[in-house]
Amino acid sequence: MSIVEDLGAQVRAAVDDLPLGQLAQALERFGLAAERLRWVRQESADPMGVPELSSAIEHAETAGYALRVAQEQLTAYLAAIGLAPDGAPAPRPAPEQRRPRHDAPDAAPPVALPPEPAADAPAPRWWAARVAELTGGGTASADRPDGTVADPGELLRRVVGAVRSGDRDRLRAELGRAHADVGLGVAAVAPPLLRELAGELLGHPPRAEDLPRLRRELDGRVRDLLPGLPAPVLDTLLTRVCRMPPPRRGDGERPHAADPAVTAGVLAGVLLDRLGRELPPTDERERRAEDARARDVADDDRRRAAADRARAADAEWERRAEAAREQAAAARARVAAAQQRAADVRRTAPPAAGRPGPAGTPAWRTPIRRDVDG
Questions:
Q1: Residue ranges of the alpha helices (H) in the chain?
Q2: Measured between alpha carbons, how far is 154 from 159 in angstroms, rounded to an integer?
Q3: Cα angle, residue 286 at apex, residues 283 and 288 outer, rounded to 5°
Q4: Which residue in 175, 99, 102, 96 sits closest to 135, CA to CA?
Q5: Ramachandran bin of 179, using left for φ above 0, alpha for ψ from -120 to 50, beta for the remaining angles
Q6: How far apart are CA 143 and CA 129, in angstroms?
Q7: For residues 203 and 187, is the Cβ–Cβ distance under 8 A?
Q8: Which of 132, 223, 212 minimizes the C-alpha distance to 175?
Q9: pLDDT of amino acid 267
Q10: Residues 299, 293: Cα–Cα separation, whole Å
Q11: Which of 62, 83, 164, 205 could cysteine-pair with 78, CB 3.0–4.6 Å?
């Protein structure tokens, strides 16, 4: 894992954690509250908080614009460091191949125009067509989308029910009848739930070393429900759950826009089925997502504090070791000075009086024999 890929994973996780969905719901509720207050004001001259609510709506809209700008800038930053918006290496543009003029054909061959389709045969929607390909259902129907499914959370609930039943046809029908924007919204609401469910399955927050276990326990069931799913899509989703850089792709391997959303919904259903849990309501999911983000921030703060304490302890031990080395050097210097002084004293001391000693013994080292009277 390179530093750039690790940075890309962190930036992608920050983009996923931007509360765009929660802010959109807040704006919707602000609008409903403003409409009710305007209706009440028809019977009263008291403004009753309408100016304050208008100011809150304006602030929320400004915050939403700032979040979208931040999301675009983070995506542009990923592209600037050579990563795609999903964290994978960006594809390199194919070099232009210039053909010599003399190799060009003299005349273009006639192009056979395909027969025009009948006017009464509507073309299938791209979202439904891709869902049919992923679920192995062949041709998609051209029916109009179901207008009753206007919320990604409701679509996620239906997908979870279809996954629990193990009915691939029902899963195809639930996903295929949704609007494309609603289906794509599943990719925004599912990641916090996936990380929470994966942590409950593992017994701790997902880490890099948990990726093989998650792949081993979830890949088979997801493949049964989505036989047409490309292999890198599930790996990319699981690496995001584990806060890892996504796997490398080739230059031509670009995922379809619908693949991450469909896979996220199916993976959430598989995890809920493995844990024997029901999909929590939207408010509870939002609360849990906020709690999970708060826990992640607290964990990051604790890790940074522990790293700071470790660095401070290392610096203290280094300071003590340096002081000990200085004290040892000073002690060695004092011992050397004492030895030098002793040597100087021995060289400059006068010889002592006494009888000459054995041959070769200096006179000053000859032992003196004292008489009885001293």
A1: 3-16, 20-41, 50-80, 126-134, 152-165, 168-176, 180-202, 211-225, 231-241, 259-275, 282-348
A2: 9
A3: 110
A4: 175
A5: beta
A6: 11
A7: no
A8: 132
A9: 92
A10: 10
A11: 83
Q: 367 Cβ partners below 8 Å, 6+ apart?
A: 354, 357
CA angle 340, 346, 349 (to 5 degrees): 130
What is residue 64's three-state secondary structure? Answer: helix
pLDDT of residue 270: 92
pLDDT along the chain (374 residues), means of 10: 72 78 78 67 55 71 78 77 59 47 46 46 70 79 68 88 89 87 85 88 89 90 90 87 76 74 91 87 71 74 83 87 90 90 82 54 52 53
- Which residue matches tokens 């983000």? 293
The DSSP symbol for 249 reads -
Specify whether the CB–CB gap between 85 and 77 falls below 8 A: no
5 neighbors 243 (Cβ within 8 angstroms): no
Nearest alpha carbon to residue 230 among 201, 270, 257: 257
Residue whose C-alpha is closest to residue 271's, from 357, 199, 325: 199
Q: Is the Cα dihedral 38, 39, 45, 47 positive or negative? A: negative
Report the C-alpha gap between 57 and 333 in whole angstroms. Answer: 77
Name 89's bridge partners. 83
Instruction: State both tokens at 94.
Output: 């194919």
The answer to whether 86 and 244 have CB atoms below 8 angstroms apart is no
Q: Coil, strand, or helix at residue 20? A: helix
CA distances from residue 358 to 68, 220, 350, 365 in whole angstroms, order as listed: 105, 102, 19, 10
Calculate the dihedral angle through the C-alpha atoms of 261, 267, 273, 277, rounding to the nearest 10 degrees. -60
226 phi and psi angles, rounded to 5 deg: -125, 75
At residue 123, the pLDDT reads 47
Categorise residue 360: left if φ over 0, alpha if ψ from -120 to 50, beta otherwise.
Answer: left
Burial 308-326 (b: 16+ CB within 10 A, else e): eeeeeeeeeeeeeeeeeee
Contact 279, 272 (CB under 8 A): yes
